[in-house]
Amino acid sequence: MTGTAGTWRVGILFSRSGITSVTESEHFYGTALAIEEINAGGG
User: Fold this and answer.
1) For residues 15 and 28, what is the distance between their CA atoms, to the nearest angstrom?
2) How many domains does the chain have?
3) pLDDT of 1-43, one tens digit each?
């Protein structure tokens, strides 16, 4: 694991363009929201 102790790097792979972007953009925003909520709660 890289980064400082206690820090996680999260990689996500969703299409942001093309035919699948319609559904995958919702997955991206849901994932980003979940990460924000986790971080706001102290990690």
Assistant:
1) 9
2) 1
3) 455 667 888 899 988 889 998 889 899 999 999 999 999 998 7
Q: Which two tokens stand for residue 14?
A: 């969703």
The answer to whether residue 24 sits within a structural domain is: yes
Question: Residue 3 domain-assigned?
Answer: no
Residue 5 forms part of a structural domain = no
- Residue at 1 is within a domain: no
In the block, tokens 């953009």 appear at: 25
**10's tokens:** 């999260």
Q: Fill in the amino acid letter for 15.
A: S
Q: Which two tokens stand for residue 24?
A: 């995958």
How far is Cα 27 from Cα 1, in angstroms, rounded to an integer? 25
Q: How many residues does the chain have?
A: 43
